[in-house]
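Sharing a chain and its predicted structure for anyone who wants a worked example. Both blocks are below, sequence first, tokens second.
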Amino acid sequence: MEKTILRVTCVIIEQDGLILAAQRRPGMDLAGQWEFPGGKVQPGETDEACLIREIGEELRVPIALRYRLPERIHCYPGKTICLVPFVGHLIRGQPMLTVHQRIDWFTVAELPTLNWCAADVPVVADYLQWRAQLGSK
């Protein structure tokens, strides 16, 4: 039997040199771990439309996407996900806490110190590499 791969998007929201991360609340899978906000892609929905919808629902803010990072496959017990990360920014407003235990802004240097969900770990590394490449141009 072939295992279904769940397509999930996430966004690294940058603002004023800081990065937004969200901590999963008790009762959720991976409770207490950090992730970049996002969600499952619905049938017929593009990755970009999914993120705009999910961030509107979860954080109650509009976002603009500016760069797509490499997709990452991760196998959790009982499910495999294809995580599709983007880099973006807020169009206006401040994110609201609705589904997570905590949301907070971190410096780029602080990102590696957070207790990330396993699927987000390579995304953090890809993001840091992308930023380093931008700085060297």
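Comments welcome. The chain is about 20% helix and 35% strand.
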